[in-house]
Amino acid sequence: MTIEKARQILKHQFGYDSFRMNQEAVIEAVLNKKDCVVLMPTGGGKSLCYQIPAMIFDGVTIVVSPLIALMKDQVEALRANGVEAAFLNSTQSASEQVAVFRSVRGGQTKLLYVAPERLFQGGDQFLEFLRELKVSLFAIDEAHCISSWGHDFRPEYMRLAILKKEFPGVPLIALTATADKLVRKDIFERLAIPEADLYISSFNRPNIYYQVEPKRKSYDQLLDFLEKRKEESGIIYCLSRNSVDALAADLRDQGFSALAYHAGLDKTTREKNQESFLKDETKIVVATIAFGMGIDKSNVRFVVHMDLPKNIESYYQETGRAGRDGLPSDALLFFSWGDVTKLKGFAEVEGNAAQSAIMLKKLDTMGTFGDLRTCRRKFLLNYFSEEFTDDCGSCDNCTTEVAKFDGTVIAQKALSAVYRTNQRFGLSYIVDFLRGSRSEKIRDEHKNIKTYGIGADISKDAWYEYFRDLMAQGFVAQTDGQYPVLVLTETSMDVLAGKTPVQLTKSRVREEKLTRVAREVAFPHIPELFNELRRVRSVFAREENVPPYVVFSDATLVEMATYLPQTDSEMRQISGVGDLKFERYGADFLNEVRNYCSRNGLRSRIDLKSKRRERRPRTKRDVDGRDTSRISLDLFQAGRSIPDIARERGLAVSTIENHLARFIPTGEVSLEQFVQAEKVEPIRKAIDKFAESNALSPIKEYLGEDYSYGEIRAVMAAVSGR
Ligand code: ADP
Ligand code: ZN
């Protein structure tokens, strides 16, 4: 009954059709007054987990959040949907704060956002205030701040245990996007909620396309990249303040709308630049990592790293700032091993060998990621201990054809250089040696060796790539330690003797086309109309002095530009159009769409949407709210083969199989359509055998080569109905 109420609020107030990830389960638990710990990736939709219960409960929900800069926007966004909300923090004057206290006492406020330090300011005063009120729920946002293991420890958070002590009957929900086990343990302990339910969502961000480019002429490459994204918002991270300033200035010279952000700028400039970015007035922010915590801009379309982040955690968090609205977004990293070496210099924690070792190891893992030839998403999710067995089909490695060639001669040159210098030198020395560098670094006795300069026709970068390739294939190895040297392996001699041919990978050529196609099929909106709708939106945003996404998110505008609503009721079906926003803005946006359609002879396509919604199966990875599986299904039902669909969509065959498997329980695809009849029984048996582990890989291993993950998943879907 109450969850029904929650669903109504979701639709009427927020304008969304269905819950995402664990939202529904969490809301149900909170409504039953259970304490909850919720782990969801950035952009997953954590806020609704407490906002909706807050609206159902009598009384007021207290939201503790360290992100002062965000509070105002969050409250504005709630008000735009007709929810009574307020905030208290140190940016307000005393009289403003008094006004807030008064209105909260008045009893209308459903959500009160409070900075943690405000909570404890003036001794017990605030707690006294809370005792006067009817507090229905405590929500602790960014709960990882309570742990010194996290990346953003805040001492004030340590005092939050008092909430449970003073208000034992009031449920408490803690939310974070940091999943680490140690952090998790601290959250349970320090908030004094040992019995809380734990909800962990997949950390996959399916709408982010991960891409790494070798760092060569990174500035030119960056310009190419930006040129294709002129209308889009993005963040570009650099390591140092100087490079931030220089790059921002260069980009402005090139006619881009770019501003700088780093801790060296004065506070006013920083705030001004941030504000301008949030309001879409500036498209690009060039920043150090000081920028980002608390950036809740939903339409960041790309995050670029000009320099290497120092660990995977930072990389994932920073790239996670892209695409919070669920639309396709890019994460681009410029990578060189030189950066790894450079950062090693900073990674040493003086007087703490153990800590230094951890930092160096994390840095090496970051290097491995940069050099990866296999699915990047799989690597990232596995790094965070999440099972992800298939290739994702939407990272550079998954969408790039790698061309191999006979590299035996190159390999022989490389290995003989290692051999002739007695396996006592590192990669960069060997490459210089091969290229016949005149540097003094090269020892005189080496300059007389026959191999010296034998590889001068191959560029330095190409040599680096070939060596990485040879290492990956085990033809040469690198020792551990601070000064790693190259050494030969058991198979090296066979190569040198000409007994083993070697295949090398051509320098990677990105098939940009492939990903573009995938995007167009997945999001068939009309860009021209989308831009017109953005203009309408910016008029409202300026009038009301709020960031544009408070009016409507990009995702909502994209839906309008896809389904072309022609009537009020059609407009109400667009995701993100709740009752109040419909009343305020509906007519203007409807007009814009209708005019566009009549000029271009187009009609409503809302049918496509309602069909999708009714039939949509529940899928775990359906984070973006847009059903990519459904697109595969449509093509499949139109008679296309699986490999054919994979090619058209630029996705892996296994991905398409996964998509289709989801429709077995709904009856839209029959099992026989993609698993041969005689294979079904063996798969069924294997599933039974490993029923307890509930994991795919042991089953696959057991069945062997002849059975694909897709087939196993299909039978599983048929057996279990999910
Ligand atoms: P988080 O706090 O986890 O980073 P938010 O709560 O800010 O994420 O949500 C990210 C975006 O997703 C917001 O624009 C929000 O309105 C939207 N959103 C949340 N839940 C849903 C849903 N069930 N359907 C559609 N959009 C949603
Ligand atoms: Zn991939």
What's the overall average pLDDT, rounded? 86
Major β-sheet, in short? Answer: 7 strands, parallel
CATH class of the largest domain: Alpha Beta
Strand content: 5-15%
- Give the spatial strand order of the biggest sheet: 3-4-2-5-6-1-7
Give the termini distance in whole angstroms: 24 Å
Q: Strands, helices and their partners?
A:
Blueprint: H1 2-12, H2 23-31, E1 36-39, H3 46-56, E2 60-64, H4 68-80, E3 85-88, H5 94-106, E4 111-114, H6 116-119, H7 125-132, E5 135-140, H8 161-166, E6 172-176, H9 181-190, E7 197-200, E8 208-214, H10 218-227, E9 233-237, H11 241-253, E10 258-261, H12 267-278, E11 284-287, E12 300-305, H13 312-319, E13 329-335, H14 337-347, H15 353-370, H16 376-383, H17 396-399, E14 404-406, H18 408-420, H19 427-434, H20 444-447, H21 460-472, E15 476-478, E16 486-488, H22 492-496, E17 503-505, H23 512-522, H24 527-544, H25 548-551, H26 554-563, H27 568-572, H28 579-600, H29 606-615, H30 628-637, H31 642-649, H32 653-661, H33 677-689, H34 696-703, H35 709-720
Parallel strand pairs: 1-6, 1-7, 2-4, 2-5, 3-4, 5-6, 8-13, 9-11, 9-12, 10-11, 12-13
Antiparallel strand pairs: 14-17, 15-16
Bound molecules: adenosine-5'-diphosphate and zinc ion.
Would you mind describing this structure in some detail?
This protein has 722 residues and is of the alpha/beta class. The protein folds into five domains: 3-200, 3-Layer(aba) Sandwich (Rossmann fold); 208-399, 3-Layer(aba) Sandwich (Rossmann fold), CATH 3.40.50.300; 401-510, Winged helix-like DNA-binding domain superfamily/Winged helix DNA-binding domain (Arc Repressor Mutant, subunit A), CATH 1.10.10.10; 523-613, HRDC domain (DNA polymerase, domain 1, Orthogonal Bundle), CATH 1.10.150.80; 618-722. It has 35 helices and 17 strands. Strands 3-4-2-5-6-1-7 form a seven-stranded parallel sheet, sandwiched between helices. Helix 5 links the parallel strand 3 (85-88) and strand 4 (111-114). Helix 24 crosses helix 26 and helix 24 packs antiparallel against helix 28. The longest helix is centred in the C-terminal third of the chain and has 22 residues, at 579-600. The radius of gyration is 28 Å and the shape is globular. Mean pLDDT is 86; it is low at 509-523 and 612-626. The protein binds adenosine-5'-diphosphate (ADP) and zinc ion (ZN). Adenosine-5'-diphosphate (ADP) is lined by residues 16, 19-20, 23, 40, 42-48, 298, 324-325, 553, 575, 625.
